[in-house]
Amino acid sequence: MRYVLLVAYDGTNYGGWQIQKNAITVQEKLTEALKETLGSRVTVTASGRTDSGVHAAAQVCHFDAETAIPPEKFADALNFRLPDDISVLKSAYAPEGFDATASAKKKTYCYRVYLSPRRNPLKDRYGVHFKYPLDMSKLAEAGKMFEGEHDFKAFCAAGSQVKTTVRTVYGIEFKETVRALGKDLEIYVTGNGFLYNMVRTLVGTMLYYAAGRLTKQALVRSLEECDRNAVGKTMPENGLTLESVDYGLKLF
Amino acid sequence: MRYVLLVAYDGTNYGGWQIQKNAITVQEKLTEALKETLGSRVTVTASGRTDSGVHAAAQVCHFDAETAIPPEKFADALNFRLPDDISVLKSAYAPEGFDATASAKKKTYCYRVYLSPRRNPLKDRYGVHFKYPLDMSKLAEAGKMFEGEHDFKAFCAAGSQVKTTVRTVYGIEFKETVRALGKDLEIYVTGNGFLYNMVRTLVGTMLYYAAGRLTKQALVRSLEECDRNAVGKTMPENGLTLESVDYGLKLF
């Protein structure tokens, strides 16, 4: 049988999702917990990798196993063995033909920044301090420019190997909350898939444009000519959270 | 001259505000940073202690010094020397006759819980998982009962030495946010002062009453007879944040 898990993790202490030699990863911790639970090693496959230090509010993954454990019991059985910064929120049988990677239709990431004259330690774990004032209408304008199907080659970290750098961004939304000493800004980016570093570089480009530190011509060149020199700074990893993965069906 | 600071800190790694032998504290870190900045040791006095592991979004403190440093420059000068989990948000000259402890009129604490079937690592640093369903009308009812002037002796940790255990709670407010897998609840408690552990025990008592695990008679006994056996569990420290201190005047 194939099982599906909804997993939240604080990525601070992990080298991202995918198992690798030089860092402890979320996939490794889940694989260990599954091995202890099932008695044998299985492969656990996620909707996609998250990079080192990136968080997930609702990562989706699947694994195959023959076991008498009822599907809804996997969450608690795994949480018993997982460290505190990883939690299985739900577990179920996967629908017929489901694959956590291939079946994913849309993913939404949220990038959190807070605007204030000085750093705030209570916001630094899941958000990033941004000290330049922002023109919110320019931010919305940049969001609209990046929506749609584009070649995002300029927003992809060097050295990544992908067949195509064309991706579709379905929507970019901004949610602003005014606070006593500044404001919090959440940037939600929904797409059919993202290149390595793409969301963090898109966000950096939009923010630097809205802060008057990148020209509109640079934004156009970043998209139309894939000019890597025209994009803004790649924002730090801790501000990024995988918020949801949409499969077009109810999994849990 | 007397200076006033607005300070935010993540209390996770500190033994509370006040300098003590057996733990690293926020007061100690600020005192060290001030000594390095001023060249001599001064005493830094806060609106009140925060307990071990408790956070502050806006602690207020004062110190006296003769220096040529302009008051608004202290924030950056201290932040340069402070660890990342403490940040001075603002600095200024203190008003005539100001004392961070004695001049404080009201303090507001926020206690954060999240209601969901399972733990969520992204909410665990500044909030606490509460797994029992809550009757929100009972929660509001309990909040109203604790408002006003009462002898809160039953809500005070054993061993604390205070002249009186009578305190006035000006208001208790609940802010609920519905999420995909449950809801977030913020409980704001404003008072003229709080006994050791009082907010955490008040919150535990209200939550356990609203969860149907304490009777209304117990709540009445906790207030009218100061019955310590009638109060709910003292909630964990990491859910508590000192949100603001009201001096009845503009400090910054």
Note the main attributes of this structure.
homodimer, 252 residues, alpha+beta, Alpha-Beta Plaits, 10-stranded mixed beta sheet, 10 strands, 21% helix, 30% strand, globular
Q: Can you give a write-up of this model?
A:
The structure is a homodimer of 252-residue chains. In chain A, α3 (136-146) packs antiparallel against α4 (198-210). In chain A, β8 (166-179) and β9 form a beta hairpin. Chain A starts with a strand and ends in a 6-residue tail after the last strand. The longest helix of chain A has 13 residues, at 26-38. By secondary structure, chain A is α+β, with helices and mostly antiparallel strands. The first copy, chain A, is built from 5 helices and 10 strands. Chain A has helices at residues 26-38, 74-79, 136-146, 198-210, 216-224; strands spanning 2-9, 45-46, 55-64, 86-93, 106-115, 128-130, 148-151, 166-179, 182-191, 240-246. The interface between A and B is medium-sized, with 30 and 30 residues.
List the helices and strands and how they pair.
Two copies of one chain form a homodimer.
Chain A lengths: L1 E8 L16 H13 L6 E2 L8 E10 L9 H6 L6 E8 L12 E10 L12 E3 L5 H11 L1 E4 L14 E14 L2 E10 L6 H13 L5 H9 L15 E7 L6
Helix pairs in contact in A: 3-4
